[in-house]
Amino acid sequence: MYRIRFHGRGGQGLKRAGRILGTALFRAGLEVQDAPRYGAERRGAPIFAYVRASRSPIHERGVISCPDLLIIADPHLLAMPDSGVLAGATTRTVVLLHTGEPVSLWRERLDLPGPLLILPRLPGEEERFRGAVCAGGAAALLTELDEGLLARAISEELAHLSAELIMTSLGLARAAHAALAGERGIVRQEEPISAAGYKTPAWLTLACEEAAVSAPAIHAAATSELSQTGLWRGKRPVIDPGRCRGCWWLCATFCPERVIAVDANRRPRIDYGHCKGCLICLRQCPHHAISAVPEEEAAREEKA
Amino acid sequence: MIPPGRQHLRELPDRHCLAAGTPLCAGCGGLAALQAVCDLLGEKTVIVNAAGCLTLLAAYPSTPFRGSWLYTAMASAPAGAQGVRDGLDILLDKGAIGTEENLEVLVLAGDGSSGGMGLSATSAAIDRGLDFLYLCYDNEGYGNTGQQASAATPRGARTATSRGPQGHPGAKKDLFAIWAAHRPRYVATVTAAEPLDLARKIETARNLSGPRLLLALAPCPTGWGYEPAEGVAIGRLAVQTGLWPLKEYVDGRVQHSKIPQPRLPVRDYFASQGRFAHLLRPENEQLLAALQDETDRYWQEVEEHA
Ligand SMILES: Cc1ncc(C[n+]2csc(CCOP(=O)(O)OP(=O)(O)O)c2C)c(N)n1
Ligand code: SF4
Ligand SMILES: [Mg+2]
To answer: Distance between CA atoms of B140 and B143, rounded to whole angstroms?
Structure first.
């Protein structure tokens, strides 16, 4: 059985990527389960989707804890502990990371027990097509799939979209597939988990404490500050000080997160630790003083 | 009398009540409305919430709030508000807290609970003359569970449960009229895309007592299908096309606070969102015309009664 997990952020189309891969495997004659993690999928927030596929009936249910293939749509996710991207990765887990950076860099950074592959960023790839790209890259690694099955699954899963969007998605998925053509078969099916031989953990029994001691007492205010929602951003709004006329109230008032403040010189300052990159400020600034810089590029410039 | 409001955006508070780092979608229009309400009400507020997207704001151990929050069953937020109000009143009566420690009770709920299963508790709370403010953020569907159709979904919109070629077949339930029919103290429609109108209405509501509703159109990139950057533009289009009339009910009368002039074709609004894309297809020409007619009739009646 294949156990495949896609990680991305709400709005990148990763839930759809799981469906595309699932449909392609189903058309290839396998039994398939595919599901996004149930719950509130927030635009920009970490989400995951998973696919199981097997020639024999699938009895496993629920979240995949030990994946054979892990697809990461965005390296930023690795910095978010609550996204659990690498959870359960073992020596046989193939990790496919979608980034414009070289594999050597990420091998060193992640020091994974198993193989790491890079799915390069493609020319003309916008964030919303990331799902199609990741589905294309993942499909290239499985012996059961070929480009025809991939294309058919995309046409089926995206049928509700415009012809133009389908064409773009197809083109990008094919390019991703081609980029990884040499890796076909690297992901291998693992045996289904069996309950035979399961040993009960050696539980420790602890006496219950009084509710007053064991229940959380929440008196601290404004703790959300500790969540670095800035990691959600795909693009960073950057204010050009030359163009900004200092009418800070426009960008600041419309910012739904209220993360634009005015400094002592009456200039707007964006709190990048928390800005989620909705870019409403960019659309509202009458002087076009704000531009959107892809986050990886902005981070590179910052370091340089 | 409706008091005059601030004239310029720079007169709005530039210190904010809620902390950053919320778990809501980038560009959430519901959060934008709540920010404005919290900025003007301040910290001395107890929020009583019914299940919905904004429930995620206060998920232990993370909260953006500086004041208290009570999470109730989805149908029961106004009943929860009654309990909190009564508790505060008893403490005030006994002198256990001073008037400076009194709190405003704010119900925060989505359109799904406000116009559906929460309606009976709301109606009863208004009957009892409960002194509370109610903020309904209307994203026109059950957003938190994947945008299924709610009582507030407009005709023609595609949702997770209305996927046919003509979208949602039902009509949007008129929560403003339902509230106004109870003769409460105050009812107003607002949207964060019109911050001055919103601020004036929040302050009007704050200075009154009794049952008060702020019904906020809450553009939702995730459920409505648009790029988050467009959120404010879409809220404004809803007002300019006449689909979201800005109005208030005070002292038994309904007044429009903004008459869109010129009124843009509803088509412009529909074209801005994926959930309406099918309305622009030739086979839906009649439906589109019917929706324009409906809006025209609404404004014709407004003019006739002016
Ligand atoms: C009694 C009950 N039924 C169903 C649910 C599941 N539920 C949680 S949030 C939600 C959607 C609420 O929609 P709305 O009030 O419009 O708020 P939104 O999610 O759009 O913010 C539902 C159905 C629940 N929590 N309680
Ligand atoms: S789904 Fe819509 S209403 Fe819910 S948090 Fe996201 S943008 Fe806000
Ligand atoms: Mg809703």
So the answer is: 8
